[in-house]
Amino acid sequence: MDRDEEVALLGRTDSSKLKSRVKLAATGCALGIFAVLATVWFLDLGGFFQFDAARWVEITEDPIVSPVDRRAPVNFLALGDWGRHGLYNQSLVASQMGKIGGALEINFVVSVGDNFYKNGLTGVDDIAFDESFSRIYTAPALQKPWHAVLGNHDYHGDVFSQLDPRLGLRDWRWHCVRDAQLIFDLSPSLFRGDVDSRVSTVELFFVDTVPFIDQYWAPNQKHDFDWRDILPRHRHLQQKLENLTSALNASTASWKIVVGHHTIRSYGAHGDSVELVRQLLPILEGNNVDVYVNGHDHCLEHVKRDDSPIHFITSGGGSKAWKGISPPQNSNGLQFYYDGQGFVSFSVAESWLQIVYYNIYGEAVHKVRLTK
Ligand SMILES: [Zn+2]
C-alpha cells in the first residue's frame, strides 16, 4: 500500500481504526506525516483531531449579512436578569436562545447576574435552581457551560449556594464565580501543543460588581445582603481591582471582554454606576479592554461614547422588561436601546468581533462589528 492509498483509507475508517492508521503513518518520514495530517484536515475529520480551523470561514466587510451565517472560532450568548420560574417571557427568551445558539454552534453562555429573582437561592437545594434554570434552558444548543457572575438580587439570598460546586452536581452546566478569567484560543488548533504558537485569544474577565455599589451598604438599605467573604469592604475592593489590573495587564489577548452585573454607561432605569465609572472604568480603559457587558437594566443597549474606546453592552432582557423607557436620541454615545426582552450573541475571530442583539422573536435588532 502506498501513501496515497493509506490517506484514502483514512477518510473512510472509524476513529479507532483511524488512530492505528495515524500511528502507522507516523512511522513514516516527516513529509509523510505532514501529508497525512494535511489530507485529514482537508477531509474535515475535525472531530478526531479537533481542528477548529475546519470551522474557519474567511469573511469580508460586507455589512449585509445574516447574523448567523458566519462561523467564528468562539461563539457565545450573553443574558442577564432572568430567573423567574419561566414567567415574564423568560421561557420565550430561552426558546429563542436555543435557536440562535444552535445556528451559531455556541461554545458557552455568559450570565451577567440577577440569576434568581427576587432573592437569589436559599441554599444548594433550592428548587428555584431547577424551576428557573435547568427546566427553562432545555434546548440542545444550550447544553453548554454557563459562566455566571452575581447580581444584587443574588446577594439577597445565600450567595455561597450559587458559588457552591455542589450546584454543578445538580446541573453540570452551572459555573458561577465572583471573579475569574476565561481564555479561549482563536488560532487553528492544528498547531496546538506549542505554547508559543498560541498567537491569538479572546479573554473574558468576570468581575463581581455588587460590592462596589454604595447604596447597598447604606444604613437605610431595606434589603439584606449576604456580605460574607466581602468584609472588610475597602480591602476586598482594593484587592479585586489590583487582581483585575494585573490580569488585564498581563493579558496578550486579541480581544478583552469584561463581564459584570452593573452598568458602567447606561440610559436605562439605573443609569451609569458612578462607583464603576470612578473605580473600574479607568482600569478597563488603561488596559485596552474592548467590550464591557452587563445586565441590571432590563433592556438591550449599546453605548459607545467618543470619550472612551470601550463598547458598553447591556443584556438585561432575560425576563421582566418593558419599563417604558425611551432615552433621547441625542443621549451621549447611545447607539441602540430596546426596552424589551432579549439577549445578545458574540462571535469572535482573530481579526473581528461581532455582537448581535436579538428580541423575543429571535429577530436581530442591532449589530456591532469590530475589526482589528
Ligand atoms: Zn441587578
UniProtKB/TrEMBL annotation:
Its cofactor is Fe cation. InterPro entries: Acid_PPase, Calcineurin-like_PHP, Metallo-depent_PP-like, Metallophosphoesterase_PAP. One of its GO terms (molecular function) is ferric iron binding. Binds 2 iron ions per subunit. The chain crosses the membrane at residues 22-43. Keywords: Hydrolase, Iron, Membrane, Metal-binding, Signal, Transmembrane, Transmembrane helix. It comes from the Eukaryota. Fe cation 1 binds at residues 81, 114, 117, 298. Fe cation 2 binds at residues 114, 152, 261, 296. It catalyses: a phosphate monoester + H2O = an alcohol + phosphate. Belongs to the metallophosphoesterase superfamily. Purple acid phosphatase family. This is Purple acid phosphatase. The lineage of its organism: Eukaryota, Viridiplantae, Streptophyta, Embryophyta, Tracheophyta.
